[in-house]
Amino acid sequence: MEAPPFWGGNVCLRAAAMTAAMALPTDRATEALAVLAEATHSIHADQPLQQRVHRLFEVLRPALRFRDARLTCWLQSAMPGTVRQQFYSVDGWPYPWDDELMRRVALGTTIEGRTIVVSNAAALGEHLPTIQAGYLGLPIRWGSRLWGVLEFRAEHSQRFDPVHCDILAALAPQLAIAVAREGRQLAESPAGASDGETPAGLTLTPQRQQQLAAVDRHLEAMLGVHELLSLLLRRALEHTGAEAGAIALVDHDAGELVIYVYEGYPQEQWRQLPNQQRQRLSWERGLAGRAARLGRALLVRDVTLQPDLPPAGPGARAELAAPILVEGRAAAVIILDSPRSNAFSEEELAFVRALCERAALPLHRAIHYQNALESANHLGQVFTSLPTGLALLDTNGKVLRANPSWFGLLGIDRERGHAAFHVPIDLVETLLPRLQDPLRLTEFCAASLNAPTEHRVMRLHLINPAQDLQILSVPTYDSRHRVTGRLWAISDVTREGEAERLKNEFVSIVSHELRTPLTSILGYTELLLNREFTADERRQFISTVYVEASRLSQLVEDLLNFSRLEAGKVKLNQWVTSLYGIVAELTTQLHTQLERHRLLFNVAPDLPPVFIDRDKVKQIIFNLLTNAIKYSPGGSEISLEIREAQEDEFPGDHPPGRFVLVAVHDQGIGIAPEDLSRIWERFYRVDNTNTRRIGGTGLGLSITRALVELHGGRIWAESELGQGSSFFFTLPVATEPAAGRKARSR
Ligand code: ADP
User: Fold this and answer.
1) Residues in a beta bridge with 249
2) Could you tell me which residue, 131 or 736, shows the higher pLDDT?
3) What global pTM score does this model have?
4) Cβ distance 85 to 306 under 8 Å?
5) 559 with 510: CB under 8 angstroms?
6) Alpha-carbon distances of 129 from 30, 93, 153, rounded to whole Å
7) How many angstroms separate the CA atoms of 273 and 386, rounded?
8) What distance in angstroms lies between residue 698's CA and the mean position of ligand 1's atoms?
């Protein structure tokens, strides 16, 4: 579109004055000419357009006696397309302007002396009664182009008369010139003011400066982000008269605004999110987002005229957004809303901008403080939930802080631990009943104290119950690298210790169990090869070789069974079976080994059939009987008891139902209480002269237990040292459905 010709101020003034003077009586014409002259002068003054329009309205006000005025103009800016800007008279009405009406003026002709109804449609702020008003609107055209629309509203009792229209018609070309010139300036300066932006550097009134100083004093004292932003928002609302407002922190990585504080919006707008999460909004939408991205304050007098700017609150018309810049970029953004379309002026904008400048440093400090608090909080959570026991000690070894794992691993009563707890004295004392070598721990503590900068590690073995702890003690320093004490980190390495023990025992037991029979086999076969013996002697030697070879074979069998059980490869072949037959077979099998003992049977006559794998159950009873033989003196009595179990005999974890109880009682060496719970462990052998002499792998009972549990039964033992032992296990009775599955008669 072609730009209109530029009109110089003087030519214009003369033309307009002549036009108006010809149509009016002399006194009114003089009056009108004076107004016209002053109005023309203010339009072309050397000031920003904003201030010229304000001045124009003030000049026109006494003549037109309007209540409210607005100029909407369309400027050609550096931005693509045309930018609309609106100017309002100072001290206007809080009633919103009717943009539909303005559009009709823009598309048509002047609307003069019309009575319109205005009401406060906004949801926010004060509720004003609906009133009637006089309205006058005229388009500002020049050439074939529309440059703007000028509108006035008056109290209903006051009507605009035709003289007013003449004055305004004469001013219209002047305004077109001013608007055209403003648009050209904008186009020439890409960094110039864009829509909604107002010139910076407006000096604040003394009253505003006092308000700022009062806020300043409070800001200095604040450390929390939330309380600081709450104060800022409160003051911004108070001193700008905005009805609603919010402050968001800017998440530059996500391109989002995180709403921190807000006031005056309807409840549902910022509904509380679960887990105290904060509302997040994309910074692509709305004035606040734009202010955050551009890093400068923006003012929009009527958001409803800007379809690309969704208002922050329902019914908002005027919006003001200003960033709080920290290190050159927006750390936060404040948004203020009003339902009154011209609620904020440059003065409010300048005030909010100054407020944001004052808030920058305190906010920077508060964000740092909050980050420090958050990381302290995270570290605290890690400290509390870590399975490693951690304690901070001072240089005397006094516990300053310890986590729950520290108390748990060392078995220290928390109450006691919270009172003054000195590691070198109190730890040794607390652990004394469980320490095999108390001196080692004492020495470790003393060494840590004597060489405060050294790193130290020790493995601590505790008994009752057995537990292996690894203790790491490292020095701690302050910011000036002075030693402040020590950090003790304790981890439970019992499992690692157990694996190590198992490996060692496996090697020593297997090598011992292999070497003993192999030595006698080699010895006897060598004798037989090198010398002549009588037939009796030969038989005796060969029988010894046979027994030792059987021992070896049993060892290999045990190891294979054990590894198959461990790998879960053993499957049961279960049938409904009577235990009487098994007992008979076992007696024959154990015949030779039972020569030195008396074996008694106590098998109930009405024994119900059981649902079992016959060979595995034979192996279970065989293991228990051989142990009874191995660990009891010759001539003593061993008894095998089999009957249906009573439920009250079951140990705690026993499954419910009908079970047969098998018990093997002996009068042997017995087992000490501390060993009784461990005899089921792989490779565990009670360590005493008897067991060392007798030999074994420590695998029998762990295999036996696995086989019983595969059947759904349980195994347990009762014993007293030197008085004999009883081993019990249960097998499931073949109930109806089970009986229907498989039955075998042997
Ligand atoms: P082992 O091959 O050593 O006999 P087991 O697993 O069968 O291995 O038994 C583990 C340990 O339990 C034995 O070393 C022994 O100390 C103890 N034990 C088992 N049965 C008896 C029993 N009837 N009387 C005394 N001690 C027993």
Assistant:
1) 258, 332
2) 131
3) 0.45
4) no
5) yes
6) 40, 12, 16
7) 30
8) 7
Q: Is the distance from the beta carbon of residue 663 to the nearest atom of ligand 1 less than 6 Å?
A: no
Q: Which residues contact 638 (CB under 8 A, 6 or more apart)?
A: 594, 597, 598, 599, 600, 625, 628, 629, 632, 664, 665, 666, 667
Neighbouring residues of 204: CB distance < 8 A, sequence distance ≥ 6:
212, 347, 350, 351, 354
- Integer-rounded Cα Rg, in Å, for the chain is 50
Looking at ligand 1, which residue's alpha carbon is closest to its atom 13?
A: 685
SS3 content of the chain, % helix, strand, coil (to 5): 45, 25, 30
Q: Can you tell me which atom of ligand 1 is nearest the CA of 695?
A: 3
| Residue 32: C-alpha distances to residues 29, 43, 175, 526, 542 (Å) | 5, 16, 17, 145, 146
Taking the CA atoms of 238, 241, 246 and 249 in sequence, report the sign of the dihedral they define: negative
Strands 244-251 and 329-338: antiparallel
Q: Hey, CA dihedral for 576, 579, 581, 586, is it positive or negative?
A: positive
Q: Is the distance from the beta carbon of residue 558 to the nearest atom of ligand 1 less than 6 Å?
A: no
Contact call for residues 714 and 654 (beta carbons, < 8 A) = yes
Give the C-alpha separation, 266 to 418, whole Å: 49
Q: For atom 12 of ligand 1, which residue has the closest CA?
A: 679
The reply to whether omega before 139 is within 30° of 0 (cis) is no
Is residue 628 within 6 Å of ligand 1 at its C-beta?
yes
Token pair 């074994």: residue: 696
User: So what's the pLDDT on residue 273?
Assistant: 59
Cα-to-chain-centroid distance, residue 309 = 34
Residue 683 corresponds to which tokens in the numbers above? 């490779």
Is residue 196 predicted with pLDDT exceeding 70? no
Q: Which residues are paired to 642 by β-bridges? A: 603, 662
Measured in Å, residue 676 CA sits from the centre of ligand 1 at 10
Instruction: Give the rounded distance of the alpha carbon of 602 from its chain centre.
Output: 65
Nearest to 73 by CA among 91, 60, 57, 85: 85
The sign one gets for the Cα dihedral 641, 642, 648, 654 is: positive
Question: Residue 345: CB partners within 8 Å, gap ≥ 6?
Answer: 90
Using CA atoms of 672, 676, 679, 680 in order, give the dihedral in degrees to the nearest 10: 180
Rounded CA separation 440/458 (Å): 9
Residues 6+ apart with CB under 8 A from 128: 94, 95, 119, 120
- β-bridge mates for residue 330, sequence order: 325
In sequence order, which residues have a C-beta less than 8 Å from that of residue 500 and are 6 or more positions away?
A: none
Cα separation, 226 vs 261, in Å, equals 7
Coil, helix or strand for 524? helix
User: Of 691, 716, 718, 727, which is best to mutate to test ligand 1, by the most ligand atoms within 8 angstroms of its C-beta?
Assistant: 691
Give CA–CA dist 122/2, Å, rounded.
40
Q: Which of 555, 675, 688, 701 to mutate to test the pocket of ligand 1 (most atoms within 8 A of CB)?
A: 701
Pinpoint the alpha helices (H) of 315-467: 346-385, 404-410, 414-418, 428-431, 438-450
Give the tens place of pLDDT for each residue, 64-89.
889 889 998 877 544 444 466 778 88
Query: Is 685 touching ligand 1 by the criterion CB < 6 Å?
Result: yes
What tens digit of pLDDT does each residue of 150-169 get? 999 988 777 777 777 888 88
State the Cα–Cα distance between residues 392 and 475, nearest whole angstrom.
10
For residue 535, the one-letter residue type is A
DSSP state of 227: H
CB 610 within 8 A of CB 733: yes
Handedness of CA 290, 292, 293, 295 (dihedral sign): positive
